[in-house]
Amino acid sequence: MPARLHASLNRINRFDPWIPARPAVHACLAMALLLGCSASVQAVTITEFPVTTAAAAPSGVTTGPDGNLWFGEATQFGTMTTAGAITEYASAGISRLGEVVTGPDGNLWSAEKLGNAIASCTPLGVITRYTAGMTAGAQPRGMAVGPDGNLWFCESAVAKIGMITTAGTITEFPLTAGSLPDSIVAAPDGALWFTESGRDHIGRITTAGVVTEIATNGGSQPFKITVGPDGALWFTELNLGRIARMTTAGAYTEYTIPTGGSQPAGIVSGPAGSAALWFTEFASNQIGVITTAGAITEYAIPTAASGPLDICVGPDGNVWFSEQNGNALARLDVSTAGTGSIAQTVGYPVPSGSSKKCGLSSGSTGLVLAALGFAWARFSRRRDRAC
Fold first, then answer.
1. What is the DSSP string of 64-89?
2. What is this structure's pTM?
3. Residue 11 buriedness (CB in 10 A; 0-12 / 13-18 / 19+)
4. Backbone dihedral region of 131: left (phi > 0), alpha (psi from -120 to 50 degrees) or beta?
């Protein structure tokens, strides 16, 4: 991981206790209270499940072949039922697992950033680690199943893309020096696409190893990548605070996240039939959703500075994400979330408990009453946030 990313994603951050004020939202609330007008309010239910091992720092999370959630930890694999029952599997030498995927063999696969290995875990918890054929100090990360039935990953520190068969044979393909590849995904065009956070590029590699690189905006730091419901590549731009879309033909569009300095990290297509993608905001401690038309909604996470990192759609059809600093997995109930034209949300106080409704969204009423927003926003910033 690049030094500028490492500092952001591996420290326990201290954030302002209130999300930056949204004048239109506060104006709508103020007028609703004073004049009785209706405010457009939406809430989302987020439930958090602490990981058993202290300081496990959960990172990658995915739905496994057994219908449970599987996730990577600092030194072991973890699995959790949708009811919250957690089991962990350790193996000597594992060091900092990242994204987790289900391989064509039905096992869970993940790259060890610090262990310089690829790890495979059966649904019963039997772990095998592979190191032969990988460049020393490669710092592997990211993981995807390729159209050839092999596992593909990034070697961040040595500017290579790696491929491993389910039998453990590793092959490496060189990239442009300094590219710092981070995340990879199989695309509808039969190739694999990946982010280059060091050079601000998106890369494409065929299963034969032919590489193409496409520039993004300077300083964008493309981070995690996925395929959207529209068949395009969608990725987070950590440094610019944007969600970006790129077609397989290379057409590139960016959408700015309303909250400044959000540091978007993980991203995933929503539940089946949804024309939206969900993403984590590591620094602003929120979960965001963006429609394929570019409308963004954000929801606050109950635990402050939780460090939301990876995200997936669970076996129950809800959105699940890892809280690296909060040492937990969390579920966002999509039935309580809006994914329409509302563009901004702000947290508001709720009663204590592990399951909370968070998020207040601006609607058309707020736009009409925006003139009242500044004074109300200044008052609101003095309050402590409960979500």
1. -TTSSEEEE-SSEEEEE-TT--EEEE
2. 0.80
3. exposed
4. alpha
3-state class (DSSP) for residue 202: strand
Q: What's the longest Cα–Cα distance across the chain?
A: 70
Residues 6+ apart with CB under 8 A from 11: none
- Series of mean pLDDT values for 10-residue runs along the chain (387 residues): 41 27 27 29 81 97 98 98 97 96 98 98 98 98 98 98 98 98 98 98 98 97 98 98 98 97 98 95 96 95 96 98 98 80 29 38 30 30 28
Vertex 307 angle, CA 302 and 309, to 5°: 115
Residue among 132, 142, 31, 56 at smallest CA distance from 329? 56
Note whether 28 and 362 are within 8 A (CB).
yes
Residue 303 and residue 323 in contact, taking contact as beta carbons nearer than 8 Å: yes
- Contact of 61 with 70, CB cutoff 8 Å: yes
- The residue written with tokens 């990239």 in the block is 175
Q: What contacts 6, CB < 8 A, 6 or more positions away?
A: none
